[in-house]
Amino acid sequence: MTSNTPPTLVKDLMITNVATISPLATIREAMKEMRRSRVKSLIVEKTHPHDAYGIITYTSIIKTIVADEGDIDLANVYDVCSKPVITVYGDMEVKYAARLMIQQSIQRVVVLEGKELVGIITMSDIISAMLENVE
Q1: How far apart, in whole angstroms, are the C-alpha atoms of residue 135 and residue 133?
Q2: How many CB atoms lie within 10 A of CB 26?
Q3: How does pLDDT run across 55-104, given as a tens digit for each residue?
Q4: Sheet holding 108-113, edge to edge
Q5: Which of 6, 73, 80, 103 has the maximum number of C-beta atoms within 10 A of its C-beta?
Q6: pTM value?
Q7: Are 80 and 1 spatial neighbours (Cβ–Cβ below 8 Å)?
Q8: Are 80 and 27 in contact (CB under 8 A)?
């Protein structure tokens, strides 16, 4: 049985107002920006055009503070961020982005257009969209 419904694309669900932070910012500054933006992660900005984006999450901050006994005023974002971040393109079908997230055990991926940041999509975004379609 085939469906005439076009596939849902990443660009249909992605969040375009993405919170970012400098890699040189302190962990305290990152935590303040997360609270201000009401997000659980920040995209770490590129330092030059050929650099890769990174990501810092609550989890990476907790690991730094608790497990490594890190100082949130001395540690910088680049010390704890994951870089390069896993990326997808807006034209990708959501099912493939979800499969990638599951395979990589991650909750979010950055959406690029060319080499530039245009959004982020999370597993929560995908689940929410699926639940809206359930009768």
Answers
A1: 6
A2: 18
A3: 999 999 998 888 767 788 888 999 999 999 999 999 999 999 999 999 99
A4: 87-89, 108-113, 116-122
A5: 80
A6: 0.87
A7: no
A8: yes
8-63 pLDDT tens trace = 999 999 999 999 999 999 999 999 999 999 999 999 999 998 999 999 999 999 98
Rounded distance between C-alpha atoms, residue 66 and residue 63, angstroms: 5
Q: Dmax of the chain from CA atoms? A: 58
Containing H/E element for 68? none
d(CA 16, CA 110): 10
Distance between CA 57 and CA 80 in Å, rounded?
9
Contact 54, 43 (CB under 8 A): yes
Q: Residue 64, Cα to own-chain centre: how many angstroms? A: 19
Range 10-132 has CATH code 3.40.50.620? no
Q: Report whether 120 contacts 94 (CB < 8 A).
A: no
- Give pLDDT, residue 72: 85
Q: How many CB atoms lie within 10 A of CB 111?
A: 24
**76 DSSP assignment:** B
Strand pairing class (20-21; 41-44) = parallel
